[in-house]
Here is the input.
Amino acid sequence: MKEENERLREQVAKQESMLSSIQDGNKFLQQQTQLLTQEVREAKKDAIRLEAERKAGVAKLEAQLAENRKLSKDNQMMSAKTRQAEQIFHVEDKGGQSEDLGQPLAAVSKAAEEALGRNGYTLKVSVRTDQRALYVTDRKVSNPSSLEQPGFRNQYLVSIQALPSNHARLSVRAEFEKIGQGGRVLGAGNEEIAEIERRLISEIRQAIGAPGKV
Here is the structure.
C-alpha cells in the first residue's frame, strides 16, 4: 500500500507538473495572442491614417490641378484681352489729345478709372502692365451729368504710358457723335471732339489732385 501510495503521489506530481506547464503555455499563448491583436489594431489604425492621408493628398492635388487650370485659363483670357487691346491701340490710337502728368502710371490709371466710372462709362477693355495702361469704354448716350451735353453719343480710348521720373503720358481719343431728331447720327467737328477729349483729361487731372489721391 505504501508503494502504491508513493507511486500515485508521483503520478499526481507529474500530472500537476504537466498541468502547470500547460497553464504556463496557455498563458504564453494568451500573451502572444494579445500582442498580435494589439499589432493588428495598430496596423489597422496605420492603414486608416495612411488612407486618410492618401485621400487628403489626392484632394489637394486635384485642387492644385483645378487652380492650375484656372490660372492657365485666366492667362489665356488675359493674353487674348491684351492682344485685343494692342490691336485696338495700334489701329485706333491716332490723333486725340495728350498731356504729360507729374504722377506715376498707377495713380493716373486709378484716376482714369474713377473719372470714367463717375461719368457712367463702363470698360469694354482694360489692360494694365508695368509700363502701360489701356482702357476702351463702351459706347453710350450721354446723360446730363456726363462729360458731354445731353443728346450725344461717345466712346473713349484712354492710353497711359509710363515716363521716366515717375511721370506718365495721358492720351485720350473720343469717338464722338451727335444724335439728331429721330435718332439720326450727325458727325461732330474736330474742335468739338478735341474739347470732349480735353474735358476727360481735365477730369482725370482733378481726380489725381483731389484730397486723398496718391
Notes: The first helix runs from residue 2 to 92. The chain is about 60% helix and 20% strand.
